[in-house]
User: What shape does this take?
Amino acid sequence: MIKRAFNKQTYFFLAVTLSMIVMIWFGRNSHVDLGLNQNFGVTFPTGRVIEVISDQTILEPGGIRMGRQDLIVELLSGEHQGKLVEAQNTLLIGNSVYAQVGQRLVIYFEQQPGVVDYFARVHSYERARAIYVMVLFLIGLLAAVFGKAGLRSAFGLIFTFVVIIFLLIPLVARGAPPALLTFGLSLCIISVSLISIMGFEKKTYVSIAGTAIGIVAYSLFYLISSAALRITGFNVEAISTLMVIDFNMGLSELLFCAILIASLGAVMDVSVSLASVTAELSVTNPKAGFKALFASGMKVGRDMIGSSASTLILAFTGTFFISLLLFRLNNFEYNMLINRADIAIEVLRAVSATAAMIVCAPATAMIGSWVYRSAPGTEKRA
Assistant: This one.
């Protein structure tokens, strides 16, 4: 009974859970001192609005409220928990936070050590609880619809989040090589996620191999495409902000990392689907050889890649939709638009990620067909 309870899969989940605890501890205790002291004496506690002293706001066309409020706020977290403070609230187009009595907000609170005076203003709505509820709802929905398989899928998602937030980002911030680290951790995410979902099965290993080939293909296409488009990574607007910090970081590699992380899920989907299809075809037709399985897998792969490629390209294009609309309203010439660096970056994202999926499909079908090909005297198992 004990042996059945503690099988290979159980030990796997326990080991991964322990590794996540270690990563979270490392991420929360990994601080980078840039010597700037920009946030000295500044905290961002959660607060509850006790009283609206004055409300000088107006509702603008479009439903945006602008103006200023003066508030009495009770701090609910941090070293000043329980303290009542006066806080300013300036409502702007980009940050219109309309405060009402009883509402929870995040407060920018600045007070130097040993000084009585302080400055407090509203920073944003308190959204953390809503985010946690939404995540729990998603996990519950996965469990309700797919049972244990849904929970295993959620486990893989949690692992991916922990790796990126508590390991990848802190290590990159401490000066680790971004591209090499992201590539290596992507292989780790692939392995843990797919084993969590499908267990220690042949099709799991086929999916891992296919996805790994896909991200290798992505790396090659990224290098070729970025060179052709003259994109160095420094063309990204956010990186110019990082450049003002005198810090040893591979800034030119960050775009490579961002696109790889964004496209990893799509490449895994293609690989898992084709590995599963090949496994099921071999069970349905035990006498099928390599050629028959590969041909059937590629038939499914062609339809899959058509829809998946469209989804991925539209996803990347959608992030740029507002900028495209702004360009159109300003009547910018086509020749100016098509040669912009930001347009080239979106093309780089779409082409590199889609190319990874296109290579991943036949690679997975080929590996799966070889693994599940007809072999006399052997029993096939997915």
Summary: The chain has two domains: 43-126, 175-372.
